[in-house]
Amino acid sequence: MSKEAEWNKRFNIGIDSIDTAHRKLFSIVQKLIHLSKDENNGPWACAEGIKYFKNYTAEHFIDEENYMQSINYPGYEIHKRLHDDMRFKTLPALEKDLTESDYSQESIQHFLGICLGWLTTHILIEDRAITGKISNRWKTDNAGADMDALENALIAALQEIFRLKTEIVSEHYSGEDFGNSLIIRLTYRHTGGKRMKIFMLLEESLILSVVSAILDMPLTKMDKLVMNAGRELSLRIVEHLGIYCRLTSQYHLESSHFMTPEQFRKTLYLEIFDYSLLLNTGHGYFAFCAKSEQDPLRTSS
């Protein structure tokens, strides 16, 4: 992770004030990575460093938003929502995880992995889009009642199935690394030809904890038993979401597959999800991505 936090010239978008702030953010993350390895002063130093990172991020977002408004950037509204999601949802959730775990190594790695991944993706796509060099990834934002309904349904499903209290970390998950995970792709088909793809990422610590509780025996490694149990649990989650996702009798499960991180990253790069959420269960992180699409072979003219 230390090498990933190094500044690279490909992160320059060509706006001096923004590039300077980005270099500073990477520098702070780099220092946090080193501090996290200090067994004696790590927790205290990380707490101070994270507070500084949070404050500097908030200042940078304001400056960047002012710049976008000054040039009448057409993607300002969605860009600001991405900032707000990070500022008011992701960072507070990560900070809460750190505090409640007394700055455990796992919570520190969650913080660093998610923040570093978010920074990298946001700069390379969303911030470069400000200059008109590329197109922004987030074209629309399913905020409002639909998002609230999905979040509430997901939280209820996870609490019912996993017996764990769950909270939203991000409404714009972009593949940030939160640790080794079981990745499952489920494809449902409607009788009219429409398909729905659902991707779930379950952190290994989460799936091991849940399956151990179900079987009433300690499990410490990801074997075929645990992976297949994870797939069955994912199917149950979708069943609980059935009413919201409109997975009625007209939908049927077409396929279910395990994915490698590389396969998921490729999918993330090629496709735009309708919904992409990151949640914390207290025993590990969980990501849910969904995309609805029309089968091109059956699209009516």
Describe the structure.
The chain is an alpha+beta fold and 301 residues long. It contains nine helices and six strands. It folds into two domains: 3-130, Hemerythrin-like (Four Helix Bundle (Hemerythrin (Met), subunit A)), CATH 1.20.120; 145-294, CheC-like (Chemotaxis protein chec, 3-Layer(aba) Sandwich). A hairpin with a 4-residue loop joins strand 5 (275-280) and strand 6 (285-294). The longest helix is centred in the first third of the chain and has 29 residues, at 42-70. The model is unreliable at 295-301 (pLDDT under 50).
Describe the structure concisely.
The chain has helices at 16-36, 42-70, 76-100, 105-130, 145-162, 204-215, 224-240, 242-245, 261-270, and strands spanning 167-170, 181-190, 194-203, 251-259, 275-280, 285-294. The protein is α+β, with helices and mostly antiparallel strands.
Order of helices and strands: HHHHHEEEHHHEHEE
- Weakly predicted, low-confidence segments: 295-301
Helix content: 40-55%
Strand composition percent: 15-25%
CATH class of the largest domain: Alpha Beta
Q: Tell me the CATH superfamily of the largest domain.
A: CheC-like
Strand segment tally = 6
Assembly type? single chain
Domain module count: 2
Mean pLDDT: 87
The shape, in one word, is globular
What is the number of helices? 9
Q: Helices, strands, pairings?
A:
Elements: H1 16-36, H2 42-70, H3 76-100, H4 105-130, H5 145-162, E1 167-170, E2 181-190, E3 194-203, H6 204-215, H7 224-240, H8 242-245, E4 251-259, H9 261-270, E5 275-280, E6 285-294
Antiparallel strand pairs: 1-5, 2-3, 2-4, 3-6, 5-6
Helix pairs in contact: 1-2, 1-4, 2-3, 3-4, 5-7
